[in-house]
Amino acid sequence: MDALIETFATLQQTLFEAWVQPLVFGMGQGHLLDKAFEGAGWLVVGLLQILILVLVIGPLQRLWPAEPVVFPKAIRVDVVYTLIHRLGLFKLVMFFSLDHAFEQGWGLLRAMGWPTFHLDALWPGVTDQALVSFVLYLVFFDFVHYWLHRAQHQSNTWWALHSLHHSQRQMTMWSDNRNHLLDDMVTSLILSTVAVLLGVGPGQFVALVAISQLSESFQHANLRIGFGPWGERLWVSPRFHRRHHSIGIGHEFDVKGQKVLGGCNFGVLLPWWDVLFGTADFQQRYDPTGVRDQVEQGRDYGDGFWAQQRQGWRRLWGRA
């Protein structure tokens, strides 16, 4: 663990000194060096993730595809989403739009006497065990993420945005970041708030996000892979998550013959919550993916990046 941390720190420092710092000074933003150094860390994470996608998950998709590739253009658009998120552009937008307000709000709470709370401090001795502390935060964050994901499916307003993610009929390792930007901003703000309230350290938060993102990319991959009867119940597999994206199954359920928002397999990393709250579906199937009204009624979710973002806004306001 120490070796990994040291290697990451070296990569972050090298990237910062060689590229980020000169760019920041060149733009006359020297007062943002601390934030720029943090951003260099996120960039290192993103580059490593993309390297793993290309060198590991990509070849697996070619060896054991769940379906043939018939919509290559849709995949190229998903690559754009992935690059925007993993190479830091989305975080840059978040910084210049919401970061100041977030910091001001937290500063106000601190001034009002809001206590510093650390989740791992509830378990005596855990704060001295970095790995155990990290696992504790990972499990709790996944619990929060499970309920956020369910809310995205059970709120008509939120589904108007989140349905863009489900409109991909050609799921691949690039599909995880295919989201409406407003949807991503809301979820990122909520998770960041939870992180601050629970006392997650900056390094821990980066590691939590990095592991989650890489696992989610694998889950969305075009892979005919499950983890077996026991493994499927320990960690979300591509097969388990594909069921969540299945047309008319993964995000709907029947109520007296009517299709309403709902679905199954909401777990982001751990299927435990689906088992515990009755939303798990472990059927060994690889169904077509997409949204019912897209397939049956021809509803337009947009072909390119900007068209998809525009259609999301139109759905939100009831105009599409």
Structural overview:
It is a single chain. With 320 residues, the chain is mainly α. It has one domain (2-316). It is 62% helix and 2% strand. The protein has 13 helices and 2 strands, in the order H-H-H-H-H-H-H-H-H-H-E-E-H-H-H. The protein has helices spanning 2-26, 33-63, 72-86, 89-111, 130-154, 156-166, 181-198, 202-219, 228-231, 238-245, 272-276, 292-296, 305-316; strands spanning 252-255, 258-261. The chain has a two-stranded antiparallel ribbon with strand order 1-2. Helix 2 runs parallel beside helix 8, helix 4 (89-111) crosses helix 7 (181-198) and helix 6 packs antiparallel against helix 13. The radius of gyration is 20 Å and the shape is globular. It starts with a helix and ends with a helix. 30% of the residues are buried. The mean pLDDT is 88.
In short:
The chain is mainly α and 320 residues long.
H/E element sequence? HHHHHHHHHHEEHHH
Major beta sheet summary = 2 strands, antiparallel
Please indicate the percent range of residues in DSSP E strands (runs of 2 or more): under 5%
| Morphology | globular
Q: List the domain count as a whole number.
A: 1
Class per helix and strand makeup:
mainly alpha
What is the alpha-carbon Rg in Å? Answer: 20 Å
Major sheet strand order:
1-2
Number of helices: 13
Record field, number of beta strands: 2
> What are the low-pLDDT stretches, counting only 5+ consecutive residues below 50?
none
Oligomer kind: single chain
> How far is the N terminus from the C terminus?
50 Å
The percentage helix is 55-70%
Average pLDDT confidence is: 88
